[in-house]
Amino acid sequence: MITVNPLEVEGIIFTAVRVELPKTNLLMISNDVGYIMCAALDVDFFNENEKLRKREVIAGRAEGVRTIDELLNAPLAKITDASKEIYGWEEGMTGKDALVKIS
Predict the structure, then answer these.
(1) What is the pTM of this model?
(2) Residues 15, 3: Cα–Cα separation, whole Å
(3) Measured by CB atoms within 10 angstroms of the end CB, which terminus of the chain is less buried, N or C?
(4) Quick check: 30 and 15 in contact, CB under 8 A?
């Protein structure tokens, strides 16, 4: 099952997506600037692939989360280089704090 809902974070609306998969869930919260996601996101791929690096994808990954609420409150274990350079994201900041920076 795929669930898509609006999600308010400090007065700003984001889109929350949950994809139920066998034995796991794919979780993502996004807006038109960037997104945070569960550990299914391969941040290194964006940072190491020159073509993708030029796109300046704004994304971060939290690990060990099972719900959208956990994704909001978990520290980001990895972020793209562009999210750090353009929006000041840092590894360890919460998903919620990262989203506020791109609102």
Answers:
(1) 0.91
(2) 10
(3) N
(4) yes
